Amino acid sequence: MRQKLLSLLKKDPRISKTTLASILGISREKVKVEIDKLIASGEIVGFITVLNTNKTSENEVTAIVEVRLTTQRGKGFDETAERIAKFPEVVSLYLISGSHDLTIIVKGKNLQEVAKFVSNKLAVLENVNGTTTHFLLKKYKEDGLIFGETRQDKRLKVSA
After folding, report:
1. Do 6 and 38 meet the contact criterion of CB atoms below 8 Å apart?
2. Region at 138 (left for phi over 0; alpha for psi -120 to 50; beta for the rest)
3. Residue 133 and residue 122: Cα distance in Å, rounded?
């Protein structure tokens, strides 16, 4: 039941407790208790709205920054990652495998603001050995949600 509840909330955080109760076959009050437990345990850390910035008037720049680090003895990457996570420009931060150690999603008002963050705040950190910045040009899909117009299937129908 817990996994089903998490799955439903992930898909639509606006789903009503009444609807959840009906789907899960439990009372509305039990749904509230279970959600409160998930929040208290840290399994749910928040509820977000995904914006299609292709259609909004919001003028912001998003960049994906790959970071190479030097590991710290006994600490690995955690201490540096925790420090980077505190910057308000950082939206998401991931430890990854491959040629870089961290992937960071950064947002700013314009290209210069993001570039200034990377060069003045991120690249100068003690354990940062290098960065590669990629600027996001257009969103097609985020958090499982597809953006853009629904395209008509223009293929001819085959009938028997």
Report:
1. yes
2. beta
3. 11
Q: Which of 149, 131, 132 has the alpha carbon at shortest distance from 140?
A: 149
Residue 147 lies inside a defined structural domain of this protein: no
Q: Cα–Cα–Cα angle for 20, 24, 27, nearest 5°?
A: 70
Question: How would residue 133 be classed by pLDDT, with cut points 50, 70 and 90?
Answer: very high
155 in a structural domain: no
**Could you list the residue range(s) of the whole structural domain that residue 35 is in?**
2-41
Please give the Cα distance from 107 to 62 (Å, whole number): 5
In terms of domains, do 118 and 74 share one?
yes
**Residue 130: inside a domain:** yes
Is 113 within a domain? yes
Of 130, 119, 117, 70, the residue nearest 91 (C-alpha): 117
pTM of the entire structure? 0.71
- Residues 15-44 as b/e (b if ≥16 CB within 10 A, e otherwise) read eeeeebbeebeeeeeebeebbeebeeeeeb
